[in-house]
Amino acid sequence: xxxxxxxxxxxxxxxxxxxxxxxxxxxxxxxxxxxxxxxxxxxxxxxxxxxxxxxxxxxxxxxxxxxxxxxxxxxxxxxxxxxxxxxxxxxxxxxxxxxxxxxxxxxxxxxxxxxxxxxxxxxxxxxxxxxxxxxxxxxxxxxxxxxxxxxxxxxxxxxxxxxxxxxxxxxxxxxxxxxxxxxxxxxxxxxxxxxxxxxxxxxxxxx
Length: 207
Prior knowledge:
This protein is mainly β. Helix content is about 0%, strand content about 45%. It contains no helices and twelve strands. It has strands at about 15-20, 40-45, 60-65, 80-85, 95-100, 100-105, 110-115, 125-130, 140-145, 155-160, 170-180, 190-205.
């Protein structure tokens, strides 16, 4: 699999996303949700029907991201959430976060698996997620990644089988960017975190 096979999702170009430990900071991006929140800068696809998922759907999600070279790893208790498979009610079904120095995926309240140990700031990471959405044990999540400057092939790091949709209500959608829910933890997180995201795409493969 090569990243070049997948076109960028319309409307989500290369973006520089910043969160700061500064209550006076205002997000400069008019098309990112949370503009007035210094610790939340996320795109939301809630109004894009084609990005929603339902029981039995299989979807491929692809994106490229890079932690700015200035990135200082925070404590694991204060993660940076970079991608959420959300509902209009309740917690996310699945989300990807930078936790300490690692990138992990969390599935509901049950599972947490490492995608990349010791993520390298200043290097583009291409992510490939294949998800079968299901409330039953037939759900599945496969995740692979590569550092685009170092490899043409992906390395699969997560292969999960089990429920991927908790028993929650509400319309499904995606959010991606940075959300820093633990910024009030003691000690506070580093002054600034900058993330770059591009090449976001969604596919509906044949099952």
